[in-house]
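Review form for a predicted model. The reviewer records the input and the model, then writes brief findings.
Reviewer: anonymous (R2)
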Amino acid sequence: MNQLIKEKTYLFSKFNYFLVTILPITLLIGSLVCNITITLIAIFFIIDIFQRKNFFFLKDKNFYFLCIIYFYLILNSLLISQNPDSFIRAIGFIRFILLAYAIFYYFHIYKNVFLKYWSIIFIIVSLDIIYEFILGKNILGFSAIYPGRIASFTGDELKIGGFYHGFFLISILFFLKKDKSFYLVSSLIFLIISFLIGEKSNLIKIIISLSILSFFVLDRKAIVKFLSVLILGFLIILIINLNTKLRESPLGKLPVIFQGKYILSSIYPKLVSDNKLEQKSFKDHISSTRYYYHYITAYKITKEYIFFGVGLKNFRNVSYKEKYYDKKNINHVGGSTHPHQTHFEILSELGIIGYILLISNFIYILFKQRKNENINKYIGISFLITILLPLLPSGSFFTSYGATIFFINYSFLIYSNKISGKSQIDLKS
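Model under review:
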């Protein structure tokens, strides 16, 4: 009988091993497949730990912190949103919490082989991005509907930048474990490919997260070499672009990614026009973006519903009300499915109470890192810091796509807790 239980437990572990391995692929396929995969991972994870009688997460204070946030989402959807869709999403949010602990758990069992397979998937996506950049369509025939953007496997949804940001650190840290030279080379190659995608916000986040990670994991000599190569590359790009003779030479006719105009305009839109720098203030630049009015609308909603917000996933219903229109320019409507900025989304939908709960958890989990020597924690630290950057546009935090990528990276932060010792997580039970 005991042997039968062990065989069933082993089966659930192996099946979850497969599901976690293909998780990045399900993100590329679509929300339905991704949600089914996450739900199955959560269910099989619960069955697995029940059969092993190994409730390790009950020893983790952070788990209870996340449960408080979860119950707040449910109460918020019931009392504030009063929207069936909001309530269903709130109830289903538990799958992301379980996903984070499942990834943490199975990483111990399978000795981080997920890093290897996820890195292979990331490399395939990178090659596909290059393919689409050169030929205009990816290997499946997808192409972006907006000029200067890359669709890759996400098709019309144009979410490949979020995917790249989510798995960038995981992949280059895998190379770091092989050799520092591999880390430096892969970082530069993937950084160049992130320029090709054409998503400015994710590009900036990738650069910042890479800088943070490199600061922690590299010694001083390696950091100096890395920065030297990076700065030299940017100088060459600018020299080619700003010098007329070089720009008209064969060197200047290299793919547009190597030209300074594309690089500058990717980071700061409308800064470069017809090879001349436009004199625009930062305020003028911000107000000219399509996200400005989403931010203003979210700010107005937050002021009106300061404590509890308008309810989970309810911004899409409230933001189109006429009272939130720009009175100076009625054509600028701030309504959208979400505010396109993490802080504004949390504040407008969950209010200051929900915002304090989430930010407090982020601060708590970061604070716990000081006791942890595991190098994997720097993935979570770097990613979380870039998620919390103000003003930069972002995808919705509460969608399946955004939440999955977030909690995958969040799982690396769970290593900080005292439960990470094998004596407290009985992997052989």
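Findings: Confidence is low (pLDDT under 50) at residues 246-278, 419-429.
Further findings: The first strand starts at residue 272 and ends at 273.
Recommendation: see findings above.
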